[in-house]
Specification:
Layout (H helix, E strand, L loop, with lengths): L6 E5 L4 H12 L3 E6 L10 E5 L5 H15 L4 E4 L14 H29 L2 E6 L14 H21 L4 E8 L12 H5 L10 H13 L7 E4 L8
Parallel strand pairs: 1-2, 1-4, 2-3, 4-5, 5-6, 6-7
């Protein structure tokens, strides 16, 4: 690729890890196309926001179009949008199933298919899927089968796409977070949640951003699922 500023698409970008990723990529001088359902316009001329449900094909297409029309290229895609619903398996409702799979899987599919099509034309690109450490280290104390079902699927497709597109210059990796200090977790739960990590603390948004940026610069790494979970995936 040339010397122009690179462009990254980030889904689920309005708060938490997604907002942290927008900041981290801007600090690397990337231009950003940021999506979430209710994201607000940015005052930064190098950040374009596209509001809408990424599981809807028309939203995914608007995100791609915004990247190409405003910046002329797509270098990276970070699939961060996700829904987490923790409850006993038999207590999930059909609406839980539909909601989680819509965002976690359909949202991945719609934007990734379109982004990789553009990356194939330029024979260069990088996709990072934000999955979950609990796929490899589930806990009976906090059952979340729908997260395992959907995020486990993303782990599998990460490796599949990495192999399918390696010869075309496209890398595909994943970051699997443990419990991260975000608005998802109420402050009064932090002490108990920290005890679930061998390192004895919650992860920070910056920990995930650092992992994603490592993969961004690691040109010989593809098909990797990088656990950022305080050691939980290694055992307890």
């Amino acid at each position: 690729m040339g010397t122009e500023q690179k462009v990254v698409i980030i889904t689920g970008a309005s708060q938490g890890i997604g907002a942290g990723l927008v900041k981290a990529y801007r600090n690397r001088h990337y231009r950003v196309v940021a999506n979430s359902r209710q994201i607000q316009p940015s005052r930064d001329p190098d950040v374009v926001t596209v509001a809408g449900d990424i599981a809807q094909p028309e939203t995914a297409q608007r995100v791609i179009d915004a990247a190409l029309e405003r910046f002329g290229r797509i270098d990276s895609l970070i699939n961060n949008a996700g829904i987490f619903v923790a409850k006993p398996f038999t207590e999930y409702a059909g609406t839980d199933y539909a909601s989680v799979l819509s965002t976690n899987l359909a949202g991945f599919f719609e934007i990734t298919q379109r982004a990789i099509a553009e990356m194939t034309k330029q024979r260069y690109g990088h996709v990072v899927n934000i999955t979950a450490s609990l796929v490899d280290q589930p806990s009976s104390a906090r059952p979340a089968a729908l997260a395992a079902l959907s995020k486990g699927g993303l782990n599998a497709v990460t490796k599949s796409l990495a192999i399918e597109y390696a010869s075309r210059g496209i890398r595909v990796n994943a970051v699997a977070p443990g419990i991260i200090r975000t608005p998802l977790h109420a402050p009064h739960t932090h002490e108990a949640l920290a005890k679930m990590s061998p390192l004895g603390r919650l992860g920070e948004i910056e920990d995930i951003a650092d992992a994603v940026l490592y993969l961004e610069s690691a040109s010989f790494v593809t098909g990797e699922i990088l656990h950022v979970d305080g050691g939980r995936s290694a055992g307890i």
